[in-house]
Amino acid sequence: MMRRILPILIFILPVNAMAAALLPGDSENGKKLHDSSSCLSCHSQMTEGKPDMLYTRSDRRVTSLGGLIKQVNGCNSMQKVGLDERGVNDVVNYLNETFYNFSD
Ligand code: HEC
Q1: How far, in Å, from the CA of 39 to the mean position of ligand 1?
Q2: For 6-65, what is each residue's pLDDT tens digit?
Q3: Which residue's CA is the nearest one to ligand 1's atom 31?
């Protein structure tokens, strides 16, 4: 069993890592992940039902694409949301296209 799976893993892992480092990702899938995971529900609770406000308020914390990537990774791991690298990349793209609009 393992002898057949290992070569496949070795092949898939680097390809995945490369894909995850690439922007743009799939923002449509990012929205699905964001809205169906605890991202939306936690932010919703924090903002009394106005989760978008977190991304659009004038004193928002994220001020660059690098910062957005960091924040999404931070929330994902600290809050144990459980998105994989590609999922994080997709969510970053969704949030950037919809709310932040950073160009680099
Ligand atoms: C259990 C709660 C919780 C979960 C789950 C969570 N977050 Fe957060 N998130 C926070 C808190 C707390 C902040 C900081 C709010 C503040 O500074 O006022 C935050 C802030 C952010 C910000 C920065 C907003 C700004 O000010 O520009 C982004 C982006 C973000 N979260 C994305 C995500 C994404 C994407 C997910 C899912 C992968 C997620 N968060 C899951 C609690 C959570």
Answers
A1: 7
A2: 565 555 554 444 433 446 689 999 999 999 999 999 999 999 999 999 999 999 999 999
A3: 75
Residue 2 in this model has a pLDDT that exceeds 90: no
How many beta carbons lie within 10 A of that of residue 100, not counting itself? 17
The pair of three-digit structure tokens given for residue 85, joined into one six-digit string = 């690298």
Nearest CA to ligand 1 atom 37: 39
| Nearest by Cα to 23 from 56, 72, 75 | 72
Which residue's CA is the nearest one to ligand 1's atom 22? 71
Tell me the two tokens of residue 99: 């709310």
